[in-house]
Specification:
Two copies of one chain form a homodimer.
Chain A (H helix, E strand, L loop, with lengths): L2 H20 L12 H8 L3 H13 L3 E2 L7 E2 L22 H8 L12 E2 L5 E2 L5 H14 L3 E2 L8 H15 L8 E4 L1 H13 L5 E6 L3 H9 L3 E8 L2 E2 L9 E4 L13 H14 L2 E5 L23 E6 L11 E4 L5 H12 L4 H13 L1 H27 L4 E4 L6 E10 L3 H10 L2 E2 L1 E2 L13 E7 L5 H17 L4
Parallel strand pairs in A: 3-16, 7-8, 7-10, 10-11, 11-12
Antiparallel strand pairs in A: 1-2, 6-13, 8-9, 12-13, 14-15, 15-18, 17-18
Helix pairs in contact in A: 1-3, 2-3, 5-11, 6-11, 7-8, 12-14
Chain lengths: 477, 477
Amino acid sequence: MDQLAQEGITRRIVASIKAQIHDGAYGPGDRLPSTRALAAEWGVSRTTVTAAYGQLIAEGYLETHQGARAIVAAGIRDPAPQAPAAAAAPPRLSAFGRRILDLPAGTGEEPGRIADFRYGDLSAADFPALAWRRAIGAASLRRSGRLRYGEPQGASALRLALQGYLWRARGIRCGPDQIVVVNGSQQGLDLCARLLLDPGDRFVIENPGYALARRALLAAGGEAVPTPVDGEGMRVDALPDARLAYVTPSHQFPLGSVLSASRRRALLAWAARTGATVIEDDYDGEYRYDIAPIPPLQTLGPEQVIYVGTVSKTLSPTLRLGYLVVPEAFCRPFAEAKRLTDRHTSLPEQEALADLLASGAYERHVRTTRRRNGERRAALLAALAADCAGAVTVAGAEAGLHLVAWLDRVAAGREGAVIAAARAAGVGTYPIAPLYDPAGPRPPMAGLVLGYAGLDAGAIRRGVQVLGQMLAGFPAP
Amino acid sequence: MDQLAQEGITRRIVASIKAQIHDGAYGPGDRLPSTRALAAEWGVSRTTVTAAYGQLIAEGYLETHQGARAIVAAGIRDPAPQAPAAAAAPPRLSAFGRRILDLPAGTGEEPGRIADFRYGDLSAADFPALAWRRAIGAASLRRSGRLRYGEPQGASALRLALQGYLWRARGIRCGPDQIVVVNGSQQGLDLCARLLLDPGDRFVIENPGYALARRALLAAGGEAVPTPVDGEGMRVDALPDARLAYVTPSHQFPLGSVLSASRRRALLAWAARTGATVIEDDYDGEYRYDIAPIPPLQTLGPEQVIYVGTVSKTLSPTLRLGYLVVPEAFCRPFAEAKRLTDRHTSLPEQEALADLLASGAYERHVRTTRRRNGERRAALLAALAADCAGAVTVAGAEAGLHLVAWLDRVAAGREGAVIAAARAAGVGTYPIAPLYDPAGPRPPMAGLVLGYAGLDAGAIRRGVQVLGQMLAGFPAP
């Protein structure tokens, strides 16, 4: 290439990067591609790219420090919002779209710096990173010939492996056709909502209960029938006609009670009588400490129950892998709905999970995390007994990865103030208020949902100590 | 453990495996877990498990060959269906559920053994397996501290990387908040259907057009307004009032025309006038051969257009990764809908794609696959000219990964017979009939959609040769 042509290309690269900076594609502090990558992208030599970067540094668009990659200079203007706010007219949305905007949005707060008891987080140290990487690698090596869309209900290797696992771990007997692999339990709940509820249909739901299940069912246009929970799980003595009931029978979320045997029978009898479907969310069925394992509802009423399982509490919530066990009659509608929703769940991840299940590595891993979470739980209970004695009553610690701490001396109306004070002291805790139906009654004292699976024992102890000091100094009502 | 206790455990393991075989959790030929895995699962020695396996082999439940793992004996009965067919009453479904059962189901035929021209398949040899495994590994190593749910609209690293990519590759200028990461374009289309359509709302769609887009919009209760396609793309001269229009302007699916500049302007003017939203499916925008790149519709009407992109044609359809660019006003509804649908797309896969984009590896890879698919396309065009001369008219080969072969001497009504004859001869081809609205007109001759991205040049040539011979011998109408 002659000198003139090279200068022309350098100028074009310079102009292109300036335009990207002006358009906000690169903001102040953003790293630019390496000279090697940009040279490959433009099909030019690295010398040409180095010249272009040199020009941009000279003009003040870029900065570079000690051989590191060039970054956009701090003085360059921030990315401009694409459309002025005035132009953003309220969009015309479907009834579904309008309903979801009316629902309360999730909170996105930063974790507390001393300890954060956010429920749903796991410790990254517990993730079987090596085994997972190997299984993902093996899945991609095995693939030969063609890359093609998979079956909507899930890879057959995974459904077969889950069939065996569900039998061994939970006593569920089902055919692989009854298993639908989904992107975590949330997608399973959303598919249930879409396939079972029409706008105006009633659904029974535990009160307090899991907020994102409630929201998915409300988004489908369902009308909630919030149903109280006591020490034996959801009360089933006065269930109305409804299309479905959502329950967490193994470990009620958030209060932790186990649905009693007589209520299980009554719930299934109600479903059989009224034609309702029971959604059994077994969100943390792998974690039990002081209680014997209880067979899922599904084993008592396979025609009435859709069982929802997930690896979000055993492997990672970041993976988005879950599974449904549906009655025979629901196999086709769920498969077709999954196909139209997103064709199928990521195949490499499905195959990696199938490998871990088939080799026994998954069950070994579950035993390990059960032991570790048992230790975390013991540390939390000990710390609460030592540092919050008299201020806190614990509920629901027999199973799962969280417990509820009722603050006996703090009125319900001050729950938000306690949480703000804890957060100011560096400890993240989470309110029980949003888990109650806003129209119904709730206990008179404040309550905290404390998840412990993301913390080590030291952080748990430090966090509870701060909490205890804060509660001791918290002004009486 | 004393002998008696050990025998008791052996008996329980034997009984458990027998029950799993009888219940169909293990079928004939299935491998059992290794003795090591099962020993870990039961918390016993491998000797105990070996004794249990020995007993099951002796009783004829299991077989073993040359030190390989035990498998279930061939003579053991097949897994029984879980519920007798009589018990499976028709389920009570929502209107959505009833609509999807009325839609035509996808076909799941085996690939032709000589060549299979299924559209959507990619060659596994094109996948950047090493780079992808490295990026997945790097993502899992980077993760420290906590595993927690991500942002519903996608990881910010990926949205920033996509912002730059969309600018460089497609000239799209948008803020990262306008990008929503989805599980492939199908989830993007389904979210559009749910958020924009109420039952009874009309939607404009190309005829012929992409079947799974049509089905997702019909499943939401929309009423299709099939709109004819000619050499300039979809006709826009008589669009009715509608809530949305679905178009493939860069390379009409399946006919391959490019939406002309004047029609682009007219379509956007219609959308602005009526308040409709245009869904631009840029499903194969990376593949262009003889034509200059055409900027997406989105660049002309960012307030009217939802842009849909995917990596299903560049990396793999098995990954389920795609993205939307939505108008500012739609950011919140799409993020909330994605949260309720499945919280977010798999984070490790999002981060791996972000890495490939940021390093320039993705764009290098796209250049490679564009060259390889250009070679496949040239092989297919040359083979059709040589072996099907006079029998076939090719359409839509200027871009993308497929073309349409019109069979000039075969009537439309015999399309199915031609495809069956080709399949019998070992070549998989796919009909154009299902892509036309069943109520509307279609061309009088049979047509085949031939995808070539999953085949090597040799298979393409062999497949076309078989096709040519078959067509030459196909009885005249």
